[in-house]
Amino acid sequence: MQTTCVEKQVTMDIIIEDLEDLGDYLTVKQMAQNIKIYDEVDILALIEEGELPAIKIKGELKVRLEKFAEHYAEIIDFIPKNGEDPDFPGEFAA
Questions:
Q1: Beta-bridge mates of residue 57
Q2: 88 with 78: CB under 8 angstroms?
Q3: Helix crossing, 5-19 with 65-75: angle to 10°?
Q4: Which residues contact 67 (CB under 8 A, 6 or more apart)?
Q5: What is the dihedral of CA 74, 27, 81, 2, to 10 degrees?
Q6: Per-residue confidence in pLDDT tens, the chain, 94 aa
Q7: Cα–Cα distance between 89 and 69 in angstroms, integer?
Q8: Radius of gyration of the chain from Cα atoms?
Q9: Which of 6, 56, 68, 74 is such that its CA lies 20 to 30 A from the CA of 12?
């Protein structure tokens, strides 16, 4: 199922609302804790590949909450839901 622009924006808004108490920027660890298919190594790879634009704040890589929400909203349809077969395409395979 493809996500429409409106659905993507709604998803982004929900993610931002859920995580706004973490601040405007998220650490690699915070991002990994909030996308169940990624660990910290995966997040660092996304940063290195330019998928997630990061900056260093006090020596720690951080990604703006809005950029994290945008990325998460783009991949959410590819994340297996509870009870679904965990075999899903490509880079998201465990």
A1: 60
A2: yes
A3: 130
A4: 52, 53
A5: 0
A6: 555 788 889 989 999 999 999 999 999 999 999 877 789 999 999 999 999 999 999 999 999 999 999 988 888 877 766 655 555 555 544 4
A7: 21
A8: 13
A9: 56
Place of tokens 């965990």: 86
The model's pTM: 0.74
Token pair for 62: 């951080």
Residue 40 in tokens: 């910290």
* ∠ Cα 66 45 18 (to 5°): 30
At position 65, the amino acid (one-letter code) is L
Distances in whole angstroms, Cα of residue 91 to Cα of each of 7, 35, 46, 75:
23, 14, 11, 11
